[in-house]
Amino acid sequence: MCWGDVGLFLARPGTGLGNAAIMAVGNPDQKNQWGKRWASMAITEPGAGSDSKNISTTAVLEGDEWVINGEKIYVTDGDRCDCVVVWATLNKAMGKTAIRSFLVEKGTPGFSVARLEKKLGIRASDTATLIFDHCRIPRENLLGGKEEIEMDIDAAKKSFGGAMQTFDNTRPMVAGMAIGLGQAALDMTRALLAEEGYEDNFGASMGQQTAIQHELEMLEAELEAARLLVYKSAWMMDNKIPNSKEASMGKAKAGRIGNRISLKCVEICSMKGFSEDHLLEKFSRDSKILDIFEGTQQIQQLIVARQVLGKSSSELK
How big is the CA angle at 290 (ends 223 and 231), to the nearest 5 degrees? Predict the structure, then answer.
């Protein structure tokens, strides 16, 4: 679908990051009740981006209800969704060990959409700012159902790790989105060049290659390398093999090359690439977010480095 439109793909019910979180760490009852809902996920805040452990949205247990207070930004499909998986802390002083995720249904009192962002690309998909002002939800809406943090620190760390596992499931998907967009840009570029009489002669010797042909062959090779990385991380995910390193490798490679391909294709096609009469300019605008959300290049490289070197997040920052 991203070969056609990344924004429309993101606007489809059931493909939200929240859905992946529910299926990754939800208990059986939650998967049954919420699994088929359209769920977005609210993590990022004005003061906490890639460093998720610094979120300040709070969740306080009062009787049989959780009371959530805070602001979330850049929530994909935050306006259109049926429910939101909200990351909040039970105790800010405990850092990441106190972070939990909560299921909040749309229309719950105290939960509102503050605004929708105006964006460079993926305009068919809404990106929202959400406000939680003494928002009360049932106690059982704690995703995964485990709230004890005072005594069992190891269990608390495992809970945060389970929440982070969501990204191991969704980064291959985002990387796949970049593959689809990159392929679309290359396909359209070849079609536009063919209209101008350009003949693509693959297999010719180096001395017979044109500059354009050389560029296209290098881009195809990079795209294929990214595609294979993505396939591997997705295969590992499907077979329940830990894939944090591979998911981050694929996301870093595909996000970077998808953006590079789309921009180079605009350049190769000159004014046709820059014109709104064709989709290349849109592909180039849409491509940048695929290199940013679900973790930037810097975050992906940090994750890979920790895995390769055997370092913890506190040892390698």
Answer: 45
Query: What CA–CA distances, in Å, run from 304 to 246, 296, 297?
Result: 8, 12, 11
Residue written as tokens 């068919």?
A: 124
∠ CA 172-174-175, rounded to 5°: 60
Per-residue pLDDT tens digits for 76-101? 999 999 999 999 999 988 888 889 99
**CA distance linking residue 302 with residue 317, whole number of Å:** 7
Q: Is 226 exposed, middle or buried (0-12, 13-18, 19+ CB in 10 A)?
A: buried
Tokens matching residue 53: 């452990």
Catalytic pick among 45, 222, 246, 294: 294
CA 98/CA 159 separation, integer angstroms: 9
Q: Span 52-75, mean pLDDT?
A: 94
DSSP-derived secondary structure letter, 48: B
The answer as to whether 58 is a domain residue is yes
Dist CA 113 CA 72 (whole Å): 10
- Residue 152: phi, psi to the nearest 5? -105, 85
Whether the CB-CB separation of 179 and 254 falls below 8 Å is answered with: yes
Question: First CA to last CA across the chain, in angstroms?
Answer: 36
Whether 294 sits among the annotated catalytic residues: the reply is: yes
Interval 36-59: pLDDT, tens: 999 999 999 998 877 777 899 999
139 and 21, same domain (yes or no)? yes
Neighbours of 279 (CB within 10 A): 15
Q: Is residue 171 part of a domain?
A: yes
Determine, yes or no, domain membership for 61: yes
- Mean local confidence (pLDDT), 29-38: 93
Residue range of the domain that includes 112 = 6-151
Calculate the alpha carbon distances from 266 to 64, 79, 162, 284 in Å: 56, 32, 41, 8
233 in any annotated domain: yes
